[in-house]
Give the backbone structure.
Amino acid sequence: MRYRGATAVALLIAWLALVPGPATPADAPPEITLTIENNRFTPEEIKVKAGVAFVLVVVNKDKAAEEFESKDLRIEKVIPGGKTIRLKVPALKAGSYSFVGEYHEKTAKGRIIAE
């Protein structure tokens, strides 16, 4: 009987070693902050690693709303004045992806470069 108990415990330990644990912060996609202030994006150019998803944290420091729009990324999102939003961006192929603040296209513009 003792032999069976030891075998069962060994099998349980082996099985637990194969089961993935809960997600850790290391598994979370990187966050990149983009600020809207005085109807401009800062930074205007963001570099990311190609093939890696990320979260774009958009902070609107202006009192008025702005719309983050990227036809390249197929993202459109209004950010109310004084608010912050998080946009999950899928892994990108190497290249350049432009974006604008649709309400102030002449001044609010930038690009994401995936390398």
Remarks:
- The mean pLDDT is 87.
- The two ends are 60 Å apart (CA to CA).
- The chain has one helix and nine strands.
